[in-house]
Design goal:
The structure is a single chain. By secondary structure, the protein is mainly α. 79% of the residues lie in helices and 2% in strands. The protein has 12 helices and 2 strands, in the order H-H-H-H-E-E-H-H-H-H-H-H-H-H. The protein has a two-stranded antiparallel sheet with strand order 1-2.
Length: 262
């Protein structure tokens, strides 16, 4: 099984390097830049939660009457991740999802959340995800990322969903970005408290304990089936390409805004 994980990491490493070393991290130099970043990135946080819940729905029993589903280890792994992602503690000790934590941090930054609020309201009112993306006029890169994620949710088996969840997300935050966020926090401490807490929590939980759980889950679902791993590799690359396009969109808007401000 290790050989397949090594093959996957070797195959996706070039696109991962492009994401980790993306130019977008070098242009986030102010609170205003960070607001723009968050207004795009919030969609990645939301669709991450959607992919997680799809895995829980498929790999555990979430209906009544209850029946045992899949392997007990798989159920444990996904449920432990869900607990941490859906009901973590915010800076004040309140139980919230990581999405809600991020949205609250955006408001504290002074970022505009009206587009995300509109997107969620459209879905609540019965519109499909794709319809809601269009009606809310979600930025192109963010919309493309969400569509790619929902293509996986709707059309791919759970072993592929698990691989995309495990390897197709940004589990490494560049030191350059962390340092810049801390610098902005020193300049605007009151605005940045919640965002810094979210970032620290993301590194601690999502990039640590949860990433190990997710890797174990993916390994158990794919087993030693070469065809499963090949499909997992293919869709993980697609997910990472969509992530790069998200960062491209953020970069372009920050540059465009900077030019207009001159």
């Amino acid at each position: 099984m290790k050989k397949y994980i090594d093959l996957l990491n070797e195959t996706i490493n070039p696109i991962r390097e492009k994401i980790i070393n993306h130019e977008v991290y070098s242009v986030i130099n102010s609170l205003e830049d960070l607001k723009i970043f968050s207004q795009h990135h919030i969609y990645a946080v939301w669709d991450f939660m959607s992919l997680l819940k799809s895995l829980q729905n498929g790999l555990t029993c979430t209906s009544v009457p209850w029946m045992p589903v899949n392997d007990g280890d798989i159920r444990y792994l996904i449920n432990e991740i869900v607990v941490g992602e859906e009901s973590d503690e915010d800076r004040l000790g309140n139980r919230v999802s990581h999405f809600e934590m991020y949205l609250s941090a955006m408001k504290n930054l002074g970022a505009n959340t009206s587009q995300m609020d509109r997107f969620l309201e459209l879905i609540k009112n019965g519109n499909s995800v794709r319809e809601s993306l269009a009606l809310a006029e979600v930025p192109k890169g963010a919309a493309n990322l969400v569509r790619e994620t929902f293509n996986v949710i709707e059309n791919e088996p759970f072993y592929v969903q698990a691989a995309v969840f495990t390897f197709g997300r940004e589990d490494l935050i560049p030191d350059m970005f962390t340092q810049m966020v801390k610098k902005i926090a020193n300049e605007s401490p009151e605005n940045m408290k919640d965002f810094v807490y979210y970032l620290d929590r993301h590194i601690e939980v999502d990039g640590g304990h949860h990433s190990h759980l997710a890797l174990k889950m993916t390994s158990q679902l794919c087993g030693d089936d070469e065809q499963k791993w090949q499909r997992a590799i293919e869709k993980t690359k697609d997910a990472l390409e969509a992530r790069k396009q998200l960062w491209d969109g953020v970069l372009n808007e920050i540059k465009r805004t900077s030019v207009n401000d001159v």
